[in-house]
């Protein structure tokens, strides 16, 4: 399986950080004392995050029109003005000069708007004149919509799409031929004309895209693909459909999940692992020789490999990276049985979370040898790599943790992982964490 990347992932976080910095920098003109400064800046940050989420202020893409950016900025400015005045009205009544507040807001939004516009035109120029920040595409089908989309890509290089080929489905052009071309030419996005493809062909392409981490979008008609959870976008005046919208692609959601992960991980590391690790180290060392920690290569976000940490629960053996632990496995030590039964062996993965390789909740990562096998034989298995793996996950608290005993086990696990990916919320993460703690106390029949 080839390495597959995600694109433009740093632009939104960078702009978000710059905007907050602008608001804080210009806010220094109010000369608050230290405590009031912390309160004011915290209020600004939280309000900005919530308002930006509500208005989708940062949901700006390469095909977004300039008028949309302007209207978003105006809406953000108007509502944020009320928010800022609410702060001064609550704490200062009428003792603050309104001209100074308006001056602060005007300066801040002028700079934010200029940065947003400058970035918009810079990226367009960068794509058009230098050929950077582009995505390779193919179009499957030669309907009127396909040809219109091809013209859009060719005539508007500033959007950063390079159409490598338009396929006419015929006896000489099979789905397998298209799939091979996509892999050989490192295509990023596949656009399908639903009018030219049968449902069977559409499902074949969807499975291929999911299993190879390719973005797939559709030029719509009345096919039954509409029964799926779809996301509508507009390229100019042409409507295009994405197969799914992943909540964690949102900057704010990504920030909230990362903040939650880091906060919880620091609490566990400082207040639990700091004293638990020395005690477990003594127990592990007394029973068998070897290191206290066990690390194993796993596949994470975008199929990248990383070392996953655990407390060692088995005697050192050459099969540790090849075979999962099974019931009554002789490789497991006595202390290891307790660790695995209570899931305490997974606790060092909070260090993986701090490093950014994992999340507290997400699809469980498999050892590399198993992942390659599942990727080739289990439909949509690769979809779970669109987000970071987790210490625990929805599949694990739903009865599909531990050893994969049958083919149906991994199929059901993938179904739960995809549901989680498409329906993520912070509340769902908390629910899964509480269920994990409950299962650890009660004991899970598959924890061995």
TrEMBL record:
<feature type="transmembrane region" description="Helical">
    <location>
        <begin position="38"/>
        <end position="57"/>
    </location>
</feature>
<dbReference type="Pfam" id="PF13727">
    <property type="entry name" value="CoA_binding_3"/>
</dbReference>
<keyword id="KW-1133">Transmembrane helix</keyword>
<dbReference type="GO" id="GO:0089702">
    <property type="term" value="F:undecaprenyl-phosphate glucose phosphotransferase activity"/>
</dbReference>
<dbReference type="InterPro" id="IPR017475">
    <property type="entry name" value="EPS_sugar_tfrase"/>
</dbReference>
<dbReference type="InterPro" id="IPR003362">
    <property type="entry name" value="Bact_transf"/>
</dbReference>
<comment type="similarity">
    <text>Belongs to the bacterial sugar transferase family.</text>
</comment>
<keyword id="KW-0472">Membrane</keyword>
<feature type="transmembrane region" description="Helical">
    <location>
        <begin position="12"/>
        <end position="32"/>
    </location>
</feature>
<dbReference type="GO" id="GO:0016020">
    <property type="term" value="C:membrane"/>
</dbReference>
<feature type="transmembrane region" description="Helical">
    <location>
        <begin position="104"/>
        <end position="123"/>
    </location>
</feature>
<dbReference type="InterPro" id="IPR017473">
    <property type="entry name" value="Undecaprenyl-P_gluc_Ptfrase"/>
</dbReference>
<feature type="domain" description="Bacterial sugar transferase">
    <location>
        <begin position="257"/>
        <end position="441"/>
    </location>
</feature>
<keyword id="KW-0812">Transmembrane</keyword>
<dbReference type="Pfam" id="PF02397">
    <property type="entry name" value="Bac_transf"/>
</dbReference>
<feature type="transmembrane region" description="Helical">
    <location>
        <begin position="69"/>
        <end position="92"/>
    </location>
</feature>
<feature type="transmembrane region" description="Helical">
    <location>
        <begin position="262"/>
        <end position="282"/>
    </location>
</feature>
<protein>
    <submittedName>
        <fullName>Undecaprenyl-phosphate glucose phosphotransferase</fullName>
        <ecNumber>2.7.8.31</ecNumber>
    </submittedName>
</protein>
<keyword id="KW-0808">Transferase</keyword>
